[in-house]
User: Fold these one by one.
Assistant:
Number 1:
Amino acid sequence: MNKRIKAGPSILAADFSNLSVEIKRAEDAGVDFLHCDIMDGHFVPNITFGPAIIRDIRKHTKLILDVHLMIEKPRKFLEAFVKAGSDIITVHIETVERPIQLIKEIKELGLKAGISLNPRTPVKDIAPVLNMVDLVLVMTVNPGFGGQEFISSCLSKIKRIRRAFSGDIEVDGGINYKTAKMAVEAGANMLVAGTYLFGSDNMKGSVEKLKDIKV
């Protein structure tokens, strides 16, 4: 199944001392979305930011805010992230006791809903909500920190999901042109690239390369 390739940077790789300029740079480069990684220091060994920063980002852009909740109690903070201006909220299957109910709640609040799984989590774990979600986010590194090496064994997981799922398959972790091409060939169509994009001297060119990947 061929789907249009969408590319967006992880905001964590931006210069937070000059965030509005970084957002404008991403917009000018032609990105499709901004990926916002929310970490709580419990589910993953790092702490990033919360709804207040999402609210500030929203003031500076009309780009889709793709909010990835890597937190232990996503339902507790759901309403706050909705009010802050999120467009997509993705939760981890590893953190949700009642995933069907939570996905319903996200959609009832008017947002797109995503489900994510870590490299060691089997695809069968997301089966109960696969027909409900708008996107599946396959982590291609162990979540927590940027700059990690792409885990190529996740490619078979992407292939398996694509056989059963017609929505967006997003990949996050170790994405550059080479690994993005591998992920797209496996069935992914949403590419999250932090350092590869924000660290590029020519972000526009890097975005175009990702979006022009052919299967």
Number 2:
Amino acid sequence: MIVRDIMATTRAAENLEIVKGLYESFAEGDIEAIRDIMAPDVELHEPKGIAGGGIHHGFDEIVENVFSKLGDEWVDVSVVPERYVADGDTVVALHIWSGTSAKTGKSVEYPNAHVFQFKDGEVVQWTSYADTAVFNAALEE
């Protein structure tokens, strides 16, 4: 029991460092570094009702349907982690998402959460939780 707890704690710490690196890569715009930590068949769950909402399979689909859409609709996007919670193969990142609508010029800032599921040191599932009403209000003219 103690050995299993130590292994889970070690795995959680390793996964936590990977997620911290993911946000650093986002800040630097290093998409390839983000790709490197994702499983080939990674699954992203984005809230319905926002740019790229829905379930996306594989990193190329995530880039095309989520990152690119966000890049087209938003400028000055920032994702600033405030707190992490790690437990075994799950890491939760609580962060502040902010950006300015390219269409309306309205800015928005709100708390958000990402939940990452790991398997063998790679992200296999990524779920995003967001306040879609706040997000979309900035897009309305």
